[in-house]
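Handout for the seminar on molecular recognition.
Each group receives one record of this type.
Step one: identify the two inputs.
Step two: read the structure output and locate the region that could contact NAP.
Step three: write two sentences on what you found, then compare them with the reference statements printed after the record.
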Amino acid sequence: MTEFNGKKAIVFGGTSGIGLEIAKLLQLSGAEVVTVSRRGALGDANDGMQNEIADVQDRDALQDLFEKHSGFDFLVNAATGGPRAIGPFLEMDLDGFQNSFAKLWGYVNTVRLGAPQMAADGAVVLISGYPARKWRPGVLAIGTVGNAVEGFVKLAANEIKPIRINAVCPGLIDTPMFALQGEERAQHFSNTTKDHLIPRAGKPEEVAPAALFLLENQFVTGTIVDVDGGAILA
Ligand SMILES: NC(=O)c1ccc[n+]([C@@H]2O[C@H](COP(=O)([O-])OP(=O)(O)OC[C@H]3O[C@@H](n4cnc5c(N)ncnc54)[C@H](OP(=O)(O)O)[C@@H]3O)[C@@H](O)[C@H]2O)c1
C-alpha cells in the first residue's frame, strides 16, 4: 500500500464523491488531509481531516488557504466548481455553455495559486471526464471543458515542473453529483453505460487509487489516466 506518512494533501471537493474517496485513501495512506469545499464536511466521513470552507472561484480565499498550508505536498482538485449545461448543442443556452467552464477556472485558480506554495517534489491531480474524448448526446459543453482540463494538464506540466501534474479521467461514476434517486437513478446509469465495455456505473472507490498512483509515482507528469469502464472505446 502507498505510504504517505509526513505528507500533507489539500483535496478540493474532498467532501463528496470522487474527491471524498481520494481524501479517505490519502488519510489511510498516512497523509495529513485538508479538504476544501463550500459547505464543509457533510457527515462523519471526513473525521480526522481538517475541513476548510472556501469556493474554488474565490481567489483571495485560495491565496489565504495556500499561505496557511504553505509547504504542502499534494494538491487534488475534484471540485465540480459550478453549474453545467446539458442538452443538445444547437438548443443550448450559450451563457450556460460558458458557465460550464467554472470547473476549469476552479482548477486553474488552485494550480496557479497553489503551486508556488507547494513542496518542490509535490504533485497535482485534477479530474477530467470521459465526454472529453467520447461524444454522447447532451454532453458537448462538459466534454469541451474536459478537453480544456486535459490540455491544461499537458501544457502546465512544463510550467510548474519539478512539481508534477496529471489528471484522472473517470467514466460514469455513481456519486452525489447525480441528483436522481431510486429506480430513475438506476435506469439512468444502466441506460448510459449499456454500450460500455464494462456496462455499469463505476464507484468512486474505483477511481481514487488512480489519483494515488499519480501522486506517488515520481516518473509521471502531463498524463491522463482513464478509469472509465471502457467508455471511451465503446
Ligand atoms: N461522477 C461522474 O460520473 C463523473 C464523471 C467524469 C468526471 N467527473 C468529475 O469528477 C469531479 C468530481 O465529481 P463528483 O461526481 O465526485 O461530484 P460530487 O460528488 O458532486 O462532489 C463535488 C465536490 O466538489 C465540491 N465543490 C463543488 N463546487 C465547488 C466550489 N465552487 N468550490 C469548492 N468546492 C466545490 C462539493 O462540495 P460543496 O458543494 O460543499 O462545495 C463536493 O465536495 C468533477 O470534476 C466531475 O466533473 C465526475
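Reference statements: The radius of gyration is 17 Å. The mean pLDDT is 97.
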